[in-house]
Design a protein that fits this description.
By secondary structure, the protein is an alpha+beta fold. The protein has two domains: 28-147; 184-297, no CATH class. Helices cover 32% and strands 13% of the residues. Strands 1, 2, 3, 4 and 7 form a five-stranded antiparallel sheet that branches. Strands 5-6 form a two-stranded antiparallel sheet. Helix 3 runs antiparallel to helix 4. The protein is elongated, with a radius of gyration of 21 Å.
């Protein structure tokens, strides 16, 4: 399964498997532990840089970032033990891992506010070599769509609004850096199909953590007229990871309209509730030369 499908059709089996696997990966303990460990390396390097930076250098790293950096690290250290026990409230508003991402976004936006390289909350030119080295360490802790499980704040629109945000290599290209594209295993698991799936509506409370699919619910019809049999689910967009107790979001429809929808539970996330983190190394396979070429060709 190394070839990218020609379009991101959520009825396509390969697309569904890839999105499902990526959402499991993005919400795994191992990925968030890797984020924390990579950020700790950056934090130590940044603190050392601030202490040893030449005082007469006009391009000095802001010391004001140091408290923010260590507050982010502390947030990781509060949230990860909870996640390791299967407590996913850590992604809700005001909780530790939501807080870590909020602060990271602020740090990234104001990382080096020198007028030659920064303007109004964003980088506008390549950083000097020493600054860029620190920026690379910072971005080593970042993953595309890492905010997928976070509770919505200022909108009722789903976090993952487009399949391309996960599958398009272009989505991994930021203005001045590129995030690594994930490597898919040879055999991706099938997306679960449950006859009596839990279905909720936009605005309702999510009853359990897991991966949900926006759907239109219909009934199969005898001779195309008389409703008979069980429910038929027609896909209405990209899967999303929803956390228990949050409100089910709306989706974006055609011509950019926001639509209410029903959400069907595909998979309830019960990982780590027994206190055991299994081997999750397949989430972090290395890119081979052939896979790298496939990614380039898919752009």
């Amino acid at each position: 399964m190394t070839n990218m499908p020609p379009s991101y059709d959520m009825t396509d089996d390969t697309t569904r498997r890839r999105v499902f696997w990526l959402l499991q990966r993005l919400t795994s303990y191992s990925l968030w532990k890797r984020k924390r460990d990579a950020f700790a390396i950056f934090a130590n390097a940044y603190e050392n840089a601030v202490k040893t930076w030449p005082s007469d250098d006009p391009e000095v790293m802001p010391a004001d970032n140091v408290p923010i950096i260590f507050e982010i690290l502390a947030a990781y250290d509060r949230g990860l033990p909870e996640l390791a026990r299967g407590h996913r409230f850590v992604w809700r508003r005001g909780e530790s891992l939501q807080h870590a991402i909020d602060l990271y976004n602020h740090l990234n936006a104001y990382f080096f506010p020198h007028p030659d390289y920064w303007d109004r909350g964003g980088q506008v030119a390549p950083y000097p070599t020493k600054v860029e080295a620190l920026a690379q360490l910072l971005h080593a802790s970042e993953y595309q769509m890492e905010y997928a499980p976070l509770e919505l704040k200022h909108t009722d629109l789903a976090q993952l609004r487009s399949v391309g945000l996960l599958l398009s290599p272009r989505a991994y290209e930021q203005s001045f850096y590129t995030l690594p594209y994930p490597v898919f295993p040879e055999d991706l698991p099938e997306v679960p199909e449950t006859v009596d799936a839990v279905v909720i509506k936009s605005g309702e409370k999510v009853p359990c953590d897991g991966i949900w699919e926006p759907v239109a619910v219909e009934r199969s019809k005898w001779l195309g007229v008389v409703p008979v049999g069980g429910r038929v689910f027609r896909n209405r967009g990209c899967f999303n990871y929803l956390v228990k107790g949050t409100r089910a979001p709306n989706v974006r429809g055609q011509v950019e309209l926001v639509m209410r929808t029903r959400w069907r539970l595909l998979w309830e996330d019960e990982r780590y509730v027994d206190g055991v983190v299994p081997d999750e190394s397949p989430y972090f396979l290395e890119t081979t030369a052939t896979q790298a070429l496939d990614i380039v060709r898919s752009k």
